[in-house]
Amino acid sequence: MYKPDSHSAEEFIAQEEIQSTLQEVAENKNNRKLLQDIMRKAEQCKGLNHREAALLLECTDQEINQQINQLARSIKQKFYGNRIVLFAPLYLSNYCINGCVYCPYHLKNKTIHRRKLTQTEIRNEVMALQDMGHKRLAIEAGEDPRNNPIEYILESIDTIYNIKHKNGAIRRVNVNIAATTVENYKRLHDANIGTYILFQETYHKANYEALHPTGPKSNYAYHTEAMDRAMMAGIDDVGIGVLFGLETYLYDFIGLLMHAEHLEAKFGVGPHTISVPRICMADDIDINDYKNAVPDEIFHKIVAVLRIAVPYTGMIVSTRESAKNREKVLELGVSQISGGSRTTVGGYVESQEAQHSAQFDVTDQRTLDEIVQWLLRLGHIPSFCTACYRQGRTGDRFMTLVKNNQIANCCHPNALITLQEYLQDYASPETITLGEAMIKKELNNIPNPKAQETAKRFLEAIKQGKRDFRF
């Protein structure tokens, strides 16, 4: 039985409910009146349920599809404006005891170079990231209780937060590690992490078990219920996602929204972010082996419909995607991207040992400064803001501000302030010119006169050498 507020994965991701939704979509995907009714509901900017969103995703009516894209752009602007948050992944270790067939970290892969960073090496990696201009990291590690115990993760977080290099500082560490216990999630919460991120990979239970034949990750229920344990432990910002291409995209799209609905029903707040990675080439992994690989056109539509279905949720696209694809989905709903990324362990200091330790091939290989300049030319504000985490605007407090359309009063000036820091400390001359013009223009778009004056004062102080202002 489908129970969105249950703690049981079998009930809040009920396979029967997904199959029933698939059948309804097949029967009604060309039902123009029904689709128009769904669009009218979507225009209220309060979201859609998984059945309504799935019908829009499969709609073939070109007029309605154009309306979907227009509404996605409108909702993106309404809730997130033209701000794009930037971050980078930091791979701590690729030791892993799981047998995931789509990931080069799997235990049987003997060609990948296994490596675990020492705390000194982490310092070097973080200083390299600070020298780029990054303020927000997402740490990644394979699942290996012996090589990567929770104590190692916690020590690494503490190391990262305590590195002060020139004007650099990592102000927020998000964590993407394997499903764990409530007690360990409490320890992560006490370490002041930002968002806890864990991808489901696929919500198709039988396929999930086939793709994860060995290791602790093979336990479908334990993995799927991880976000419940994290939120029970006090982590109120969680990030979910699937790896599109492991199962049919529609099946996992439905499961993804059901997971978001479950978190809302059970905890009163949905996911802080949704990520939409696609299967891509990597060491020991050939994309041609995956018949469900998602073409660009469908990928773009997934982003657009997700933006309509979960208007309050941040959406992330990584450097798996090309610059062309990232530009397209930025306008349709994506609000966070990685930049200057390395998916190798030790890759930011370009050590020789890092060469064959990547989790996936990076498609967008531009430097952070090139990406900042690109965003500015597209009319976006590159943001390095971490203020909401540090001011306690997380979970339901953050979502309340977003739903009331008040978050821009904080995010817009904070984006400009952190952009000014980047321009002062790291940017190329061309980026400085573009960035200063953007700040001058966007200052006038801060609606509150008092906030506008405060932002101007902060910006001037940054030019005089001071740092870390926030609303």
Quick summary of this structure?
With 471 residues, the chain is an alpha/beta fold. The chain has three domains: 12-76, no CATH class; 84-388, Aldolase class I (TIM Barrel, Alpha-Beta Barrel), CATH 3.20.20.70; 395-463.
Annotate the secondary structure layout.
Layout: H1 9-12, H2 15-28, H3 32-42, H4 50-58, H5 62-80, E1 83-93, H6 119-132, E2 136-141, H7 150-161, E3 172-176, H8 182-190, E4 196-197, H9 205-211, H10 220-224, H11 226-232, E5 238-241, H12 249-267, E6 273-275, H13 296-309, E7 314-317, H14 323-332, E8 336-338, H15 368-377, E9 381-383, H16 387-390, H17 395-403, H18 408-425, H19 429-443, H20 449-463
Parallel strand pairs: 1-2, 1-8, 1-9, 2-3, 4-5, 5-6, 6-7, 7-8
Helix pairs in contact: 2-4, 2-12, 3-5, 4-12, 4-13, 5-13, 6-7, 13-14, 15-19, 18-19, 18-20
| CATH homologous superfamily caption of the largest domain | Aldolase class I
Biggest β-sheet strands, sense, barrel: 9 strands, parallel
Mean pLDDT, as a whole number?
Answer: 93
Count of alpha and pi helical runs: 20
Along the chain, the helix and strand elements come as HHHHHEHEHEHEHHHEHEHEHEHEHHHHH
Quaternary state of the chains: single chain
Proportion of beta-strand residues: 5-15%
Task: For the record, give the distance between the C-alpha atoms at the N and C termini, rounded to a whole number.
Answer: 46 Å
Task: Describe the model.
With about 475 residues, this protein is of the alpha/beta class. The chain has three domains: about 10-75, no CATH class; about 85-390, Aldolase class I (TIM Barrel, Alpha-Beta Barrel); about 395-465. It has helices at about 10, 15-30, 30-40, 50-60, 60-80, 120-130, 150-160, 180-190, 205-210, 220-225, 225-230, 250-265, 295-310, 325-330, 370-375, 385-390, 395-405, 410-425, 430-445, 450-465; strands spanning about 85-95, 135-140, 170-175, 195, 240, 275, 315, 335-340, 380-385. Strands 1, 2, 3, 4, 5, 6, 7, 8 and 9 form a nine-stranded parallel sheet that branches. Helix 2 packs across helix 4 (about 50-60) and helix 18 (about 410-425) packs parallel to helix 20 (about 450-465). The termini are far apart.
